[in-house]
Design a protein that fits this description.
Blueprint (H helix, E strand, L loop, with lengths): L3 H8 L10 H11 L3 E3 L6 E3 L1 H20 L3 E2 L5 E3 H4 L3 H7 L5 E4 L2 E4 L2 E4 L4 E8 L4 H11 L8 E10 L13 E11 L2 H22 L5 E4 L11 E8 L4 E12 L1 H5 L3 E3 L5 E3 L1 E8 L1 H10 L16 E5 L6 H20 L4 E3 L7 H10 L4 E5 L1 H6 L1 E6 L5 E5 H29 L1 E3 L3 H10 L3 E5 L4 H11 L2 E6 L7 E2 L6 E2 L2 E7 L1
Parallel strand pairs: 3-9, 13-27, 17-18, 17-19, 22-23
Antiparallel strand pairs: 1-2, 4-8, 5-8, 6-7, 9-10, 10-16, 11-12, 11-24, 12-13, 13-16, 14-15, 19-20, 20-21, 23-27, 24-27, 25-26
Helix pairs in contact: 3-7
This protein binds one RNA strand of 78 nucleotides through helix 1, helix 2, helix 5 and helix 11.
Length: 501
RNA sequence: CGGGGUAUAGCGUAGUUUGGUUAUCGCGCCUGGUUUGGGACCAGGAGAUCGUAGGUUCAAAUCCUGCUACCCCGACCA
């Protein structure tokens, strides 16, 4: 059967609408804006230049924030001895399934085929890190003797592997890139403060840089990282009404120091177990950016993370030879002005594509501003400035452009954030009736602020009815007594329910 | 991991029910020319052991079996 719509989408290089099929839309955006692709190895993705440069920009910014707050970068090995892995009981419980394990060190040729050399079996099997607590704590044991050795505030940029049941590009891949922070402290108070400090850094990074508003909170006891005392998190609301956890910070208490026997001598000469934290954000953030801001015409990137903030497109006319050099001249002049302002700008003067083609291409890629330069601009001495976020064109002089362009980028950044914030607010309600809860969760999704009796079975039942779970227990709001929305039992505060990724 | 679906050129597809010459069409790609203010046009050209490994048959894209990958739904997911 001839599918006219499919044909049309392909012919016009359009993507599926969000309202038709949200996950198809998501996948097509990633494909058509050339962010990444699946590699043919189940659940592993290839990040292409445009997608990877987004990660590089985010990494650079977050790295600065972490360093400014006193953290230092380190690098620990990718492979972790299985024995050190199993020291921490709770930890083992989580990752006993879903790890990649290295058992051999050699391949040999056998009948023109490469096979594993059975002779090369490793005495001690190695686990590809799903997270690095165990190997890091093995080293901390060497480095920590006295309170004078503390705190240790380390961060590592690297990759990790978790063998997932179901993968989604950027959101849950078997391999992901991330930063993992691992800190050690002499007091509980200091470690908790560290966790909260990191949560605030993540929040600032998410809201001011990625333009994604978040809720801060802690995970309920059944959802926290098993090796932690408290798991802090930030959650964001996506356009389809599902929540995405975009950052995590664990207060690990003394769990790891006890498991790895890491003690220090305190000021009074007494031995004490070290207090610790760990925290991370990953390439999942790119998925969050896509799902928070983009529309049916493609990606929308907040200027602060856009690899290209402004694209300059020339519009040539072959009938006037000297006109072309004037267009180039003006374009390059603008290019240099913008470069001086430290704006990431590109001049696309390839003749193999028409201006119209380029317009759609850079809209698909989410470039915040486009400036097109043709004979009109030269004649009128006004520039056409196009905003990706609002789809509006404006015409201003070169002088005004020079003066206001940085401000315009900031305005776009703000507008994108504001839009996401308005949506999140609209999708967040306080409810006390379970029928209303079910109806809204089914129809709209979103965050629902409701009372919970503290029983994990209650959540299971709610999940069966609605697919929603508790995303977090808010830190700074919802502190009021009430009755559980499901059971009617007493509740000390409201929690956030949502469907999630 | 359970249920469902899909796999034909770089991409999207026709053909598969009912096996039968040289596998259809569009986009993209290459060459030349004309174009260029919202996905340009004309002419010519290249590109496919039909996902993979077997099987049935005189004959397989088409029928059967295994495997692999992807998509959707669920379970799982610091």
């Amino acid at each position: 059967m001839f599918n006219y719509l499919l044909f049309f989408n392909d012919f016009m290089n359009r993507i599926t609408k969000r309202s038709e099929n949200y996950s198809k839309w998501y996948n097509e955006i990633i494909d058509k804006s050339k962010l990444a692709e699946f590699s043919g190895i189940r659940g592993f993705m290839v990040m292409k230049p445009y997608g990877y440069s987004i990660w590089e920009i985010m990494k650079e910014k977050l790295d600065k924030m972490l360093k400014k707050s006193g953290h230092e970068n380190v690098y620990f090995p990718l492979l972790i001895p299985k024995t050190s892995f199993s020291l921490e009981k709770e930890h083992t419980k989580i990752f006993s399934e879903g790890c990649a394990i290295v058992t051999h060190s050699k391949l040999i040729k056998k009948k023109e085929k490469l096979v594993i050399d059975p002779e090369s079996r490793l005495q001690e099997e190695l686990v590809v890190r799903p997270t690095s607590e165990s190997i890091i704590w093995k080293m901390y044991k060497r480095w920590i003797q006295s309170y004078r050795d503390l705190p240790i505030l380390f961060n590592q940029w690297g990759n990790a592997i978790r063998w997932e049941m179901r993968t989604r590009i950027f959101l849950r891949t078997n391999e992901f890139l991330w930063q993992e922070g691992h800190t050690a402290h002499s007091t509980k108070k200091e470690a908790i403060e560290e966790t909260k400090k990191i949560l605030n850094i993540y929040t600032e990074f998410s809201e001011k840089f990625m333009g994604i508003p978040v809720l801060q909170g802690i995970k309920p006891y059944m959802d926290k990282f098993h090796g932690s005392d408290t798991t802090y998190c930030i959650e964001a609301m996506m356009q389809d009404g599902k929540a995405l956890q975009i950052g995590t910070a664990h207060f690990l208490g003394q769990n790891f120091s006890k498991a790895f026997n890491v003690q220090f001598t305190n000021f009074h000469g007494k031995k004490e177990y070290v207090w610790s934290t760990s925290w991370g954000v990953s390439t999942r953030l790119i998925g969050a950016i896509i799902m928070s801001h983009s529309d049916d015409n493609g990606l929308i990137l907040p200027p602060k993370i856009a690899p290209i903030q402004i694209i300059i497109v020339p519009i040539y006319h072959n009938d006037h030879g000297e006109e072309e050099s004037k267009i180039d001249e003006l374009s390059i002049k603008i290019l240099n002005i913008l470069k001086e302002k430290k704006i990431r700008v590109k001049y696309d003067n390839r003749k193999i594509f028409t201006p119209g083609w380029k317009f759609y291409e850079y809209e698909m890629k989410g470039v915040p501003i486009r400036i097109s330069i043709g004979k009109n601009e030269i004649k009128n001495e006004k520039l056409e400035i196009f905003r990706r976020d609002t789809y509006k064109k404006m015409y201003i002089t070169l002088m005004d452009m020079k003066k206001n362009i940085t401000h315009l980028l900031e305005e776009i950044q703000k507008n994108i954030y504001q839009k996401a914030l308005n949506r999140t607010k609209k999708m967040t309600v306080k409810l006390d009736d379970y029928n209303d809860f079910k109806e809204r969760m089914h129809r709209l999704g979103g965050f629902i602020l409701a009372h919970w009796d503290g029983d994990k079975n209650t959540v299971k039942k709610i999940q069966n009815d609605t697919e929603a779970t508790i995303r977090l227990i808010p830190i700074s709001f919802g502190k009021e007594k009430g009755k559980c929305i499901y059971s009617g039992n007493n509740s000390s505060q409201r929690v956030i329910f949502s469907k999630s990724y």
